[in-house]
């Protein structure tokens, strides 16, 4: 297989308008008509702007259907020397590899106690009364491919005994989310402020 390689430049206005910023691009096409482009580098070709600014990329990854793009937004800026665009702080997703941690993170002690009683009283998964009992069975089944209450009951008993040792419970996650949303607000403000002092580049061939 051979690649057809073309190199070309793209240009953007600079912040003062007297010069240009150049982006060196490379496009590779293979025998199957697949094409990929990559950036080989960027330079400020303006004497004044090169003294005052440097180039920064603000990259954000977002959830996106594959047919709508790659889920990456990449904006380039001339940022005044001495400051920098803060990186984006996103919402943390909690993933637990251990099942007890996952259950403790989703249910309060009261709910887990209620679920345990439900399991001990009703004895069969099909007879469970509480939604959280069914959901705990689903979590256990997903992890261990088993639904037997005789296996799940000891897990819940252990969680109840150690509940105060878990770092993440619905309460601590709620507190975390409050701090996190404050942090995200501050982060967005800092990003906006830096961008307002910067010049967004818009490259064209
Ligand atoms: Zn300039």
Write the layout of secondary structure elements.
Elements: E1 3-13, E2 20-30, E3 35-45, H1 47-52, E4 53-61, E5 72-80, H2 99-106, H3 109-122, H4 131-144, H5 149-161, H6 170-197, E6 199-200
Antiparallel strand pairs: 1-2, 2-3, 4-5, 5-6
The protein binds zinc ion.
Residues 14-16, 18-19, 46, 48-49 line the site of zinc ion.
Sum up the structure in keywords.
single chain; 205 residues; alpha+beta; three-stranded antiparallel β-sheet; 40% helix
Could you explain how this protein is built, in words?
- The protein has 205 residues and is an alpha+beta fold.
- The protein has 2 domains: 3-90, no CATH class; 99-167, no CATH class.
- Helices cover 40% and strands 26% of the residues.
- It has 6 helices and 6 strands.
- The strands form 2 sheets. Strands 1-2-3 form a 3-stranded antiparallel β-sheet. It has a 3-stranded antiparallel β-sheet with strand order 4-5-6.
- α2 packs across α5 and α3 (109-122) runs antiparallel to α5.
- The longest helix has 28 residues, at 170-197.
- 15% of the residues are buried.
- The mean pLDDT is 94.
- Bound molecules: zinc ion (ZN).
- Zinc ion binds next to α1.
Quick summary:
By secondary structure, the protein is α+β, with helices and mostly antiparallel strands.
């Amino acid at each position: 297989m051979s690649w057809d390689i073309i190199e070309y430049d793209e240009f953007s206005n600079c912040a003062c308008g007297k010069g240009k910023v150049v982006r060196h691009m490379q496009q590779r096409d293979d025998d199957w008509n697949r094409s990929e482009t990559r950036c080989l580098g960027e330079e400020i070709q303006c004497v004044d702007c090169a003294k005052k600014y440097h180039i920064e990329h603000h990259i954000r990854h977002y959830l996106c259907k594959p047919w709508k793009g790659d889920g990456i937004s990449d904006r380039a800026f001339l940022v005044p020397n001495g400051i920098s665009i803060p990186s984006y702080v996103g919402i943390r997703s909690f993933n637990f590899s251990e099942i007890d941690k996952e259950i403790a993170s989703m249910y309060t002690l009261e709910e887990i106690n209620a679920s345990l009683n439900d399991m001990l009283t009703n004895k069969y998964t099909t007879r469970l009364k509480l939604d959280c009992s069914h959901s705990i069975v689903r979590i256990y089944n997903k992890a261990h491919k088993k639904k037997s209450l005789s296996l799940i009951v000891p897990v819940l008993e252990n969680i109840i005994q150690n509940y105060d040792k878990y770092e993440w419970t619905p309460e601590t996650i709620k507190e975390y989310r409050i701090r996190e949303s404050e942090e995200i607000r501050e982060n967005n403000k800092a990003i906006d402020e830096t961008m307002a002092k910067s010049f967004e580049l818009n490259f064209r061939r």
